[in-house]
Task: inverse folding
């Protein structure tokens, strides 16, 4: 806590026969953030080490394409990645043969299902259209602008029926026949409007004797309706059989598909990992970062996987930073208790802290909740927000959304605690057995609390800045910078002077003299201290006398800016009190509106209270979040926070198929 986890850099040398075992172990342990050795060791480019090329990418890509194609046709696609089968031996050539056999079977079954579904849809549309048109006229008003279908009625020799159907086989169609005497059949043929020319051509070719359209209204004949219903029933049965066949096919082949997709995910991850390796004729060099507390587990796992046939070099991140400076990009691992994970999200939203800097998560959690609860204190609204957060935190597919839900639960709990202090339940002050601390009646007390809270936050930020600079051995900045210990002392001396002035006491001449002298002394001592802490650093240009003159002038300009900044930073925290008062004022507005509309019936005031509280939760809850974050980011983080860290991304299999 207060610092990211201490990191170690590993260089692992393994034999080419053991590289797959070592890679698998790195993926299993989920504790190593891979980098290219050339990022830190320039000699790697000059020593003849080669990059690793994928020699079987074509076969691998074909297997992946086949597997995903089959999985999409047998939807739903298997989402959960099988961790057990992912590490099994993978033979792309053998799996491709199996997948090709499965693809042939799946294509046949899926095509049959799709055709059955299209046939049923066409029959239903034809029945609907025919029923509607027969009830309007006998036959169909072919020229009607309301139909999407083209229909023809008539009779033709029975021997020409097959030819007629073949002529229409290339387009969606429905042909209904009714036997008649003397070897002829009556029929009704239906196609889409766009295919009407083909229908007319087919009718002319087989010599269809068309039945004229009359204006006489008539119901659809019973025998025709029965025939249509029978066709639909048969089509439904065919579709059910086709769907059952797809389900059986999915059940039979899903385990194999899941295994192949899991192995593909593993192989893709392995290829990404190897792209960062460097190799010689018989060895591979692996480079990466791991948290210091995971050192033993990582090293023992690699040695066990390779049968002790490996060399492992370990270096602390601090050593590399001292050697290479800012060129070293150390990945950042937050090291906080699990309960603080939602607040890590707030810190990361501003930026990941640099490696040798402060991780303020443990301070952000209580201060953010204090400000949120103080500005949004109400038992009822807090309970609603906590319940909403509990529901969101149960989201299984995205960890980020779950963390938002957990943060809502914390915010709701803080609102409940301050609501108990204020004695407010959905704005009602007669529910709890005591009156509570009424924000509108205690304005001066709230302003005082907000000011002292802000002073504490600003002071803590300056302490963090000084500690961070001293940790980096930047003694001059830590001691004499405006964001160091000198700035902290100047701030509190200024606070003491302001408190005395507000209390009506005469300013102490000694205190004023110290405040004036402090920046000048700091300006003169800064360069000598820097020279002592870094002996090799060149002295100030133009000599110490010119440096002293420049430093004093620079300090005079900075003094005015810093005093103004400290003053405005402190006053910014008054918004905590202002929003607490505004929250109580909104309740008064809701109650006043409910009283005005009381004459509209007993239900109307209840509706007003519900809508008012819902609006306050949705809108004011968001505004209060923004204001609390603004105070954290600009008034607190701005004093010490050094962003620029890279997220720790260990080599590991995803939990779902990508």
Result:
């Amino acid at each position: 806590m207060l610092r990211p986890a201490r990191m170690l850099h590993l260089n692992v040398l393994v034999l080419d026969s053991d590289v797959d075992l070592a890679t698998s172990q790195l993926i299993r342990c989920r504790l190593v953030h891979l980098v290219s050795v050339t990022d830190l060791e320039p000699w790697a480019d000059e020593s003849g080490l080669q990059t690793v090329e994928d020699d079987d990418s074509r076969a691998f890509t074909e297997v992946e394409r086949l597997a995903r194609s089959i999985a999409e046709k047998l939807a739903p696609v298997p989402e959960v990645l099988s961790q057990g089968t992912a590490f099994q031996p993978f033979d792309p050539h053998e799996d491709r043969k199996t997948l090709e056999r499965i693809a042939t079977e799946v294509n046949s079954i899926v095509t049959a299902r799709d055709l059955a579904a299209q046939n049923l849809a066409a029959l239903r549309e034809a029945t609907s259209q025919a029923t509607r048109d027969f009830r309007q006229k006998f036959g169909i008003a072919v020229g009607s602008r309301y139909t999407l279908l083209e229909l023809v009625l008539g009779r033709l020799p029975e021997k020409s029926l097959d030819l007629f159907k073949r002529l229409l086989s290339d387009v969606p169609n429905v042909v209904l026949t009714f036997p008649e005497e003397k070897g002829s059949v009556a029929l009704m043929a239906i196609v889409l409007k766009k295919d009407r020319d083909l229908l007319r051509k087919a009718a002319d070719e087989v010599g269809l004797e068309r039945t004229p359209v009359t204006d006489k209204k008539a119901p659809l004949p019973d025998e025709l309706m029965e025939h249509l219903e029978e066709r639909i029933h048969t089509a439904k049965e065919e579709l059910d059989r086709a769907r059952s066949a797809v389900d059986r096919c999915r059940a039979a082949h899903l385990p194999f598909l899941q295994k192949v997709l899991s192995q593909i995910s593993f192989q893709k991850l392995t290829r990404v990992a190897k792209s960062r390796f460097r190799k010689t004729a018989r060895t591979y060099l692996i480079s990466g970062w791991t948290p210091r507390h995971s050192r033993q587990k990582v090293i023992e796992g690699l040695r066990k996987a390779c049968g002790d046939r490996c060399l492992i070099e370990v270096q602390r991140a601090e050593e590399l930073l001292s050697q290479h400076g800012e060129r070293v990009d150390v990945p950042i691992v937050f090291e906080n208790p699990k309960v603080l994970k939602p607040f890590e999200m707030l810190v990361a939203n501003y930026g990941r802290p640099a490696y040798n800097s402060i991780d303020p998560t443990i301070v952000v959690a209580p201060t953010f909740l204090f400000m949120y609860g103080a500005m949004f204190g109400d038992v009822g609204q807090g309970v609603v927000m906590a319940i909403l957060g509990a529901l969101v935190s149960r989201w299984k597919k995205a960890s980020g959304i779950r963390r938002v839900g957990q943060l809502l639960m914390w915010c709701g709990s803080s609102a409940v605690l301050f609501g108990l202090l204020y004695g407010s339940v959905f704005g009602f002050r007669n529910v709890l057995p005591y009156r509570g601390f009424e924000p509108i009646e205690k304005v001066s007390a709230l302003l005082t609390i907000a000011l002292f809270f802000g002073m504490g936050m600003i002071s803590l930020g300056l302490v963090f800045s000084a500690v961070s600079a001293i940790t980096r051995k930047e003694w001059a900045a830590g001691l004499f910078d405006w964001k160091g210990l000198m700035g902290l002392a100047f701030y509190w001396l200024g606070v003491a002077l302001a408190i005395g002035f507000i209390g009506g006491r005469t300013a102490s001449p000694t205190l004023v003299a110290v405040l004036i002298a402090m920046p000048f002394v700091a300006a003169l001592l800064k360069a000598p201290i820097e020279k002592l802490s870094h002996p090799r650093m060149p002295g100030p240009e133009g000599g110490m006398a010119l440096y002293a003159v420049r430093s004093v002038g620079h300090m005079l300009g900075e003094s005015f800016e810093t005093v103004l900044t400290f003053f405005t930073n402190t006053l910014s925290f008054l918004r905590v009190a202002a929003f607490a008062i505004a929250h109580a004022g909104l309740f008064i507005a809701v109650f006043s509106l409910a009283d005005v509309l009381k004459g509209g019936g007993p239900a109307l005031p209840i509706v007003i209270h519900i809508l008012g509280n819902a609006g306050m939760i949705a809108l004011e809850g968001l505004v209060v979040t923004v204001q609390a974050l603004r105070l954290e980011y600009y008034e607190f983080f701005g004093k010490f926070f050094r962003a620029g860290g890279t997220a720790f991304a260990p080599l590991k299999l995803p939990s779902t198929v990508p």
